Target: IclR family transcriptional regulator
Amino acid sequence: MKTANGESVLGRVVRIFEVFGSEVTALGVSELARRADLHVATASRLVERLVGYGWLQRDEDRKVRIGVRLWELAARASPTLPLRETAMPFMEDLHAVVGHHTQLGVLEGDEVLFLERLSSRKAVINLTRIAGRLPLHASSSGQVLLAFAPAELQQRILDGPLRAYTPATPTDPKKLRTRLAAIRRDGYALCPGYIDEAATGIAVPVRAPDGEVVAALGVVVPNDANARMQVPALRAAALGISRSLIR
Amino acid sequence: MKTANGESVLGRVVRIFEVFGSEVTALGVSELARRADLHVATASRLVERLVGYGWLQRDEDRKVRIGVRLWELAARASPTLPLRETAMPFMEDLHAVVGHHTQLGVLEGDEVLFLERLSSRKAVINLTRIAGRLPLHASSSGQVLLAFAPAELQQRILDGPLRAYTPATPTDPKKLRTRLAAIRRDGYALCPGYIDEAATGIAVPVRAPDGEVVAALGVVVPNDANARMQVPALRAAALGISRSLIR
Model:
């Protein structure tokens, strides 16, 4: 259980944190140990130490949660904070105009990771969460990022598997490749019902001053004939963000 | 340098992350080692492992940064995310009406930690940053949180030291105690020039359904006679957040 070089300690700590997610925000130590595949005694000792550093915290009912201190450490120096802070005023304006979920995503591994989401209480269903992920082939933000991604990544995604969320999700690699070319040509991705039949995702690229696509700006609106109307507002907001980005 | 129980490894990892902040977002390994008080070889080995887990990442120029993966892990299950997500629509509306920095802070240790800040490009100076901190005695959000904090914490803060940012910063414990009573009575803190002479901070408490103060909602406006006009909009927004909070 113990190692001289400490590698394993770090690995176990990482496993503990990987257990938590948007659906799993608080756990008892034994359940945490089970999910992290650790002995209860080992997990218990590490949790105690991590609580001491504020990286984990305990509820009144003794359940363990992510510590506010860890969020603080990760957020204050996050490499994505400048992008997110630059984008926010434009996202607020876009959100006010469109009146539906507005989100900013970046490529992280083989998925889109959402840095921010502005929501409306009455808006359409949206599977996106802050710090949540969606697959590149199925979401509008993902398709935008994939369309401008390196050829190797495109090939890996096209090689599948391409999960179908609804009958409308594109799962044919040839058709998906054609779609990506269209997104590069048109400058936006419109995805009616690809993830949920009631919703249409629309996304556009956000470019750094050197032209590189660094993020996708998207909205999720009802799946109806009006969805396409939002494209100009999205493109204008993305251009505003790009103009404000300092490298 | 190595320990059998791994305690020290975890302590070193924590020291590495503590080095990063809003002013220090990227560092070479030797500088990182120096600031974390570690041997370069030790730091180098740990950085390598942390890069492998995505908790740190390397720039093109080999500098080390906080990894997007760590932000993701900390943010997706953060205990403060529900509060922040509930508050955001109200904060957006408040921001649109007030036209100046709008922020949400919570009590963390002996300071206020800001979970969110909505900024305007043309707005007045503001020392607040997302995941940044300010002292309880000098900031409007801090004074609100302090006014409703347990007596022990109030006493500890009043015992000082109470740093003066400007000649207007309250540093007399007796006067500060009177101020806290006034904040409890009036339901808001108005802090003209306490942190920067050009700015006035105004904050109000956000209460959970059980009445407990869980956050402070604040704005930072120019230090002039109009500042007090923002109080009703702030109070209405805070009531809206409280009504939407589910325990």
In short: The beta strands of chain B are 56-58, 64-66, 101-108, 111-118, 133-135, 189-192, 199-207, 213-222. Chain B touches chain A through 57 residues (CB under 8 Å). The domain at 78-244 of chain B is CATH 3.30.450.40 (Beta-Lactamase).
